[in-house]
Amino acid sequence: MRKRSNAAGLPAPETKARVNGYEVDFFWPQLGIVVEADGLRYHRTPLQQRRGLERDQAHTASGLRPLRFSHWQIAFEPSYVQRILHETVAALPVP
Q1: Which of 41, 43, 50, 55 is deepest in the core (most CB within 10 A)?
Q2: What per-residue string of b and e applies to 8-40 under the rule 16 or more CB within 10 Å gives b?
Q3: DSSP letter string, the chain
């Protein structure tokens, strides 16, 4: 049986994986989903924000679905994060 990710009910993601030349926070290769958790420490300046956008664009161009959640959302709105993850998975094409 596959290990499940915390309350989201998804398979456990790879963490700190290299995807399209970038280290990502969470990666579900079987689902094609990349999740970045954005805190102010690493996403405060315009340059840091641009790099985040370039990552998302590279992932999208390769056929993946990048999602970004703020630290606030993860810490204080976990049901929202879970809902978006579930809706994203539900919208995936059936193989």
Answers
A1: 55
A2: bebeebeeeeebeebebbbbbeebbbbbbbbee
A3: -PPBPTTT-SBPPEEEEEETTEEEEEEETTTTEEEEEE-TTTS-SHHHHHHHHHHHHHHHHTT-EEEEEEHHHHHH-HHHHHHHHHHHHHTSPP-
For the whole prediction, is pTM greater than 0.90?
no
Residue 4 has pLDDT above 50, yes or no: no
Chain centroid, CA 47 distance in Å: 20
**Cβ(10)–Cβ(89) below 8 Å:** yes
Domain range summary for the chain, segments of one domain joined by +: 14-90
Cβ atoms 25, 68 nearer than 8 A: no
Q: Which amino acid is at 54?
A: E
